[in-house]
Specification:
By secondary structure, the chain is α/β, with parallel strands linked by helices. A four-stranded mixed beta sheet has the order 1-4-3-2, covered by helices on one side. The chain starts with a helix and ends with a strand.
Length: 154
């Protein structure tokens, strides 16, 4: 347990030092693109369930762009949902999961209550302590199967 906190602390200090020196060529995420098998279900999950805003779309691709005001996601439709290959976090190189920060413990619980009844959502685990706490997190799969983590770290 102590080893994990030490690694996190060293990482955070390294990040702060690098930023102070000013040698970083990048400064955070611009957006994340997720391929989805059901564009309607996945975009409605973010918009209706989580309260995100639809900020654009490309009907030719097709894609829907959603945002929580701090982060932008591009949801890209697969070309044929019937032949889509589902992601395996243990066998595919790529995104293992996408983690979102919750605003509070209460917000994390509210997210859980909202998502657990959504058709197509799989709850891998309900809110629980992360690595012994004090942070809590939960993991789900949104309607197209992308793994999403929600975490509050006080």
């Amino acid at each position: 347990m102590l080893k994990i906190y030490f690694i996190i602390l060293v990482s955070l200090c390294s990040i702060n030092h690098a930023n102070a020196v000013g040698n970083m060529l990048t400064k955070g995420f611009n957006h994340v693109g997720l391929t989805v098998s059901d564009l309607t279900a996945s975009s409605e999950f973010f918009i209706k369930t989580l309260g995100w805003k639809k900020v654009g779309e490309d009907t030719n691709y097709p894609a829907v762009f959603v945002s929580d005001g701090a982060m932008l996601l591009t949801l890209w439709q697969t070309s044929d949902a019937k032949t889509t290959v589902k992601f395996s976090r243990k066998n595919n190189v790529g995104l293992h999961h996408l983690a979102f920060s919750a605003a509070s413990f209460e917000a994390l619980d509210e997210i859980y209550h909202r998502v657990k009844g959504v058709k197509g959502v799989v709850v891998e685990f309900a809110p629980e302590l992360a690595y012994g706490g004090p942070a809590k997190h939960m993991m789900i799969r949104e309607p197209s199967g992308n793994r999403l983590e929600f975490m509050f770290r006080p």
